[in-house]
Automatic annotation (TrEMBL):
PANTHER family for this protein: STAGE 0 SPORULATION PROTEIN A HOMOLOG, TRANSCRIPTIONAL REGULATOR-RELATED
Presence of keyword Cytoplasm: yes
4-aspartylphosphate: modified positions: D54
Function: May play the central regulatory role in sporulation. It may be an element of the effector pathway responsible for the activation of sporulation genes in response to nutritional stress. Spo0A may act in concert with spo0H (a sigma factor) to control the expression of some genes that are critical to the sporulation process. Required for high-level post-exponential phase expression of a series of secreted proteins.
Top-level lineage group: Bacteria
Record has Phosphoprotein as a keyword: yes
Protein name as catalogued: Stage 0 sporulation protein A homolog
């Protein structure tokens, strides 16, 4: 469900804006907060798609809150919209937080609804498309040829990692290890054709959804650990940035 948080210390203004949103998009989940502290508690414990923030909160600055939101990995590119009567702060807001837009108080219903239509309807359409794509990938199977002409179907979502073994590839899954003979890692990845199974090393491809821990071994090499799996894979320095980005996505980074 698409979710919005309204951070506004004036309960009347907050209620007005909430009713305007629901008149256009009654399918959204709306969280409410009257301070930075209460807002952060909601933000850290839920998945928020859009932030509507009063730029002049009584006990703190809406700009400061927006900067804290931007420091959270999964919210780095989410929509921040400021609520304001002080236009002199807007340029600063755009520069510091890369906010999407602003709404001037008192709220104009037509302006609010036009903005919501532009953002929410487009984003929910994108979210639905991504969900459909993930569902297709989750149910997808690949058929590989084992030794002695045995064929086996493997669900893509069951693959933990793939390891090159000479001219063969060992496909490690939660149901066991299957060896595909006389096939390259590149060819396996083409057959799998999945966004979350990616190459991590010249001899490994990993399922980024199952990563539990990444441990640095030396300057050029790290070891990847997986949930509920005793085996590990390697992560080479050429692939490190993209793998680390996927691993951190949607997580709160403490340090």
């Amino acid at each position: 469900m698409y979710s919005i948080i309204i951070v506004e210390d004036d309960s009347i203004q907050r209620d007005i804006l909430k009713r305007m949103i629901l008149s256009v998009c009654d399918f959204v989940k709306i969280y409410e907060a009257d301070s930075e502290m209460s807002a952060l508690e909601i933000i850290l414990n839920n998945d928020i798609n859009m932030f509507l923030i009063d730029i002049s909160l009584k006990q703190s600055s809406g700009l400061d809150l927006a900067m804290k939101i931007r420091s959270i990995s999964k919210y780095e590119f989410r929509q921040i919209i400021f609520l304001t009567t002080h236009m002199e702060y807007i340029t600063q807001a755009f520069k510091q937080t890369h906010c999407y837009d602003y709404i001037v108080k008192p709220y104009d219903k037509n302006d609010v609804q036009a903005m919501l239509n532009k953002i929410i309807l487009n984003e929910t359409s994108d979210l639905n498309n991504k969900a459909d794509n993930y569902s297709e990938e989750k149910d997808k199977e690949v058929v590989i040829t084992l030794k002695n002409g045995v064929y086996v179907g493997i669900k893509v979502n069951d693959i933990i990692f793939i390891e090159v073994d000479g001219k063969n590839c060992d496909i490690n899954t939660y149901n066991g290890v299957y060896t595909a003979y006389n096939i390259s890692l590149k060819k396996i990845l083409q057959l799998v054709d999945c966004n979350y199974i990616v190459q991590s090393h010249r001899a490994f491809a990993i399922n980024t959804n199952y990563i539990y821990k990444i441990e640095k071994l030396d300057v050029k090499l790290s070891e990847v650990y997986f949930n509920e799996c005793s085996k590990t894979a390697f992560l080479g320095y050429k692939f490190k940035n993209s793998i680390m980005s996927e691993f951190k996505k949607g997580k709160v980074i403490i340090c």
